[in-house]
Amino acid sequence: MGEDLGEWDDSSTIIPDNDAGGSIIAKEDCIISGLEEAREICEYFGLSAEPLYDEGEFVPCGSRVLAIFGNARKILQAERLILNFMARMSGISTLTRECVLLAGAANKGVRVACTRKTTPGFRIFEKKAVFLGGGDTHRFNLSDAVLIKDNHIKILGLEECLRRAKSRASFTKKIEVEVENYEDMLLAATSGADIIMFDNMSPSQISEGMRLLSEKGLRDGVLIEASGGITIERLAEYAATGVDVISLGCLTRNARWIDLSLEMD
Known about the structure:
This protein is α/β, with parallel strands linked by helices. The protein is about 40% helix and about 20% strand.
C-alpha cells in the first residue's frame, strides 16, 4: 500500500471526501480472479466492494466485475493496487484455462500444472490464479515434496539420492525424480520414486519411455510428468503421450495482464 501511495498523494487529495461509487470493468474476455484480494484492499481503505462474478468465472468483454462504494478519494487511491492484482491474476487464470482445455482435448485425464517460476513475494497469488483457471498448483515451496533434479544426480548419483530421500523425508512426502534418459527412468521406477518427470524430452521420446515402463509392468506404479520447454503450441502433442501431468513455467512467466479499468459512476 505504502509503495503506491508514496509520502504525499496530491493526485487524489484534490478530490473532496464525498461518498461515491465505481466499477471495475473487463475490457476483454477473460477468466476473472483476484476479486477476493481486491475486496481486501478495499477493506483496508475503508471501502466496501461487491464482486459481481465468482472467482474463476468466464467474463465477457465490457462486463462490470466489481462494484466499489465509499469515499471518492480513497477509491482513487486504491484503484491501481486493485487493478494490478486483478489484471495479473486474471491473466494467469485465463492462460491456464486455455491450456487446460487444449491439453484435455488430447488427454482427458491430464493435469496442467505451474512451476516455481513465480514473482518473488507474489507466488501465493500467482499459484491461486492457476488454481482458479483450472490448473494444478504443483509445489508451493521446497518443503512440499522431494524433487531430485539433474544437479542432485551429478553430485551424488541417482541411487544415493533416492536412498537418502527415502531415509530422511517424511512418509507423507512424495519423491519425484527428474530424468533425461531411459536408464534413469527405469532406475527411478524400480527404486521407490513416486513421480517421474521427463525433463526437456520430445513427445516421441516420452512416448517411448511410456512404452518401456508399460512393457516392464512399471507404468501403474508411478505418476508421469512432462516438463521443460513445453509451449502452448505443442501442448496437445505432449498431452497425447498419456502423461499424468504437464508442468508449464509459461503459466506464470508468460501470462499477459488482462485489460481492466476503474470507471467512476
